[in-house]
Amino acid sequence: MIETVRERFRALNTQVDFCSLRYVEERGEQLCVRQNVEQPLSTWIDRGAMITVIHEGGYGYAATSDLSSNGIKAALEQAKAWALRTRRHSVFDFNQARLGHPQGRYQVDSPRLHWNRRDMLGLLHTESAAAKRDERIVDWSAALMMAEVEQLYLTNDGGEVMQRFNYVIPNVMVTAFADGEAQTRSLGGQGNGYCQQGGVEIIERSRMVGSGRRVADEALQLLASPNCPTGSMDLLLMPEQMMLQIHESIGHPLELDRILGDERNYAGTSFVTLDMFGQYQYGSALLNVTYDPSRQDEFATFGWDDDGSAGEKTWLIRDGLLERPLGGAISQARAGMPGVANSRACSWNRPPIDRMANLNVEPGSSTLEGMIGSIERGVLMDTNVSWSIDDSRNKFQFSCEVGWLIENGEITGMVKNPGYRGISATFWRSLKQVGNESTFEVMGTPSCGKGEPNQAIRVGHASPACLFGDVEVFGGEI
Amino acid sequence: MQQYFYQLADHVQTQLRGGERYTLWLSGEASQFIRFNHGRVRQSGQVRQWYLSLRLVQGYRHVHASISLSADFDNDRQLLAAELLRLRDALTDVAEDPHLLLADEVHSTERTEASRLPPAEAMVEEIVSAAARYDLVGFLAAGPVCHGFASSEGQRNWHETASFHFDWSLYAGGDKAVKHSYAGFDWQREGMEAAIHQSASQLELLQRPARTIAPGSYRSYLTPSALGEVLDTLNWGGFSEKELQAKRSPLLRLREGSARLSPLVSLAEVSAGGLAPAFQHEGFLRPDSTPLIKSGRYAGSLISPRTAREYRLTTNGANASEAPESLQMAAGELPVSQALEALDTGLYISNLWYLNYSDRTACRLTGMTRFASFWVEGGKIVAPLNVMRFDDSLYRMLGDNLLALTEEREFLPDAATYGERSTSSLLLPGALLKGLEFVL
């Protein structure tokens, strides 16, 4: 289909200032065994194309799954019509954006998933069976999702980029229940935080093998644990929670389209303003945050974004100082400042907007043992379970599946229902220690929501464990 | 598209082999999407998409494929042929499913409303004109949406409407804004303009110096939109029979009788009063109304066919998510016109935002105030409120702390467009609470 789409686009008489076609074909499969019963096998094939036109200062798009010559031609006419209809009313002269005409290919080194369905189902049955430890285990499941995506980007001036991606998401979730209380523990988070690009080697990396029993044991331990204490104390966040902390209180506030006001009706605005770049101390001097499309295993690694800009590792926050926003080519032109290649769409039927891609905290020099040893009283929290933040991305409250109380430099026991709250603008300045490479993990989310029309997109976050001081910590009601 | 869908269904029927059955679900739309910022157009375009879900069944084995259609019969016929081969092959990999439940009785239905929408470009011109004096940011979605079901048993269902949903905020400065929407099947320029002007009438209040309150409990009035955000959070397993059985439902204590809500609270899934199709993905029809909470006590759950088979219950036509799509709350006796007076001194909360559970077992929720929320003294709006975080249990909010519900209810169609344009809706009153706990 890719060759056919290319020929049909090249045959168009576009007669516009700029035109691109973005073809996306995704094939995927979801396997799940719940309570030792195979859930319905779900597969999908989703393909279509979006034509984007910039003409006489206006911007229009048309997305269609009719990939015939007539279908693509009609999409071009409709996109052009929207560009012309709205040029007098546009928020920006889109001709100033000067989108490029890139050439290239991107795919991971090992392009095959090596997905054997029966083997995968066998693994899920094994983990499911191992999770039913005793009668207090009331629900349990093991799941694997895989997707293969091919994406072709063409422009009317000869630009052509071909990219291929493979995704795998393992998940195990166990719920234990006793005395009117439920506790759920998972592998990587109930929101599929352990998601990476690559093949079935991800299953081994995720420590999924053997996780059914391990996760169930922790769910049972949580039932017997005291509530997380309440008070101001040290907080040690592991990567399965750091990914959420980065996502909500660094990633979203740095999105340039939010800063420019596009998202004020839905996802929200940002406490960050244009004048803060280059001079605002976002966090302590230990904080280094990068937009990093260079890690092959991370969930949102790519060669080019969906407006044809090439990805390149870029420091957004260096030694705590805010340097650069997450803004693609159009937002950069609107704001008059450099950004990164993060103009992205979740599929062929949604237009590109500023999204996080891979947004990472760079490792520091502390060992996990050293960080724990430095804590007089605090809590280690792992695996996000709840997230809430205001529309300026400032006041947040997050909860985790599990916590461990730390007293006098030692872990003294598990605590349940751990949560904490703070304000982004001050929270990152309380960063006391940053873990080294040995604490570093590659996580992500398959479903970051934003945009009108709404889009749920794949995002990667890699982080070491990090220690924060004087954080407001709390537990549950029970 | 209806005839095309039925043509595809007939074609699939001819491709079946001995003992095979199928179900088809179609979800399609031809949508015009226009974003606005600063009263001008940010991004405009259209999306035509037709997703077909094909389930192939052989005995108790079944596999499922979602396919994006081209709407060209020859092309889609080839696509379906290839998918049928793949699914047939996949059937050999999967085990028999003891929880499979398909509709045995044939109930064909049809509801089609011809489009009465003007061209989207005309709507855009009218919006830009009406927004000229304002910092308006928002989104217009318009066009036909259709859903269809077909099965090898001969059932055929079709639901097609053409609607618009214009959802916007007017900004008074900083993060202070008022949010409204104008939605329906018949676009009226005057109706849209009146709605924008109604929003604008609150701008003066929002431009007053803002009030920051200290953490603590505050008497609060939640508009239907704000209450809707609270109840939407219950969509995450609250009314789901599967989640209740798995002990993860935040309403488990209500079901088990160890917690109660106020006798004022009655909730039901009222399919007859919503916008969603009256049939679901496996072809089961939905009852007109399914009581969920009656006078503060648990009254029922949403049961998908799969859950029904698993727990030996009767399905009530819920989809796999077992989340309400047409939730209604019974009205109270407080006239909206007296809401401020009844509030007296406290918080008038127009919208809540980004809710999540801080303790699911206790049904404790946290979230933020957003848009047009005010500090009120003596029944008069005094100042806009700087955003505050609440953290409180639903069992308190809509339990002992619920003083009154308004006698007028507001119909709130869902503006969501994740994957496809939502057909969900809410019909809710406003709620007066004697206390809501704020923490940050």
UniProtKB/TrEMBL annotation, chain A:
Coiled coil: none annotated. It comes from the Bacteria. Gene3D superfamilies: PmbA/TldD superfamily. It comes from Parachitinimonas caeni. Residues 19-83 form the Metalloprotease TldD/E N-terminal domain. Keywords: Hydrolase, Metalloprotease, Protease. This is TldD/PmbA family protein. Residues 230-473 form the Metalloprotease TldD/E C-terminal domain. The lineage of its organism: Bacteria, Pseudomonadati, Pseudomonadota, Betaproteobacteria, Neisseriales. Belongs to the peptidase U62 family. The keyword DNA repair does not apply.
UniProtKB/TrEMBL annotation, chain B:
Residues 216-436 form the Metalloprotease TldD/E C-terminal domain. InterPro entries: Metalloprtase-TldD/E_C, TldD/PmbA_sf. It holds the Pfam family PmbA_TldD_3rd. This is Metallopeptidase TldD-related protein. It comes from Parachitinimonas caeni. The lineage of its organism: Bacteria, Pseudomonadati, Pseudomonadota, Betaproteobacteria, Neisseriales.
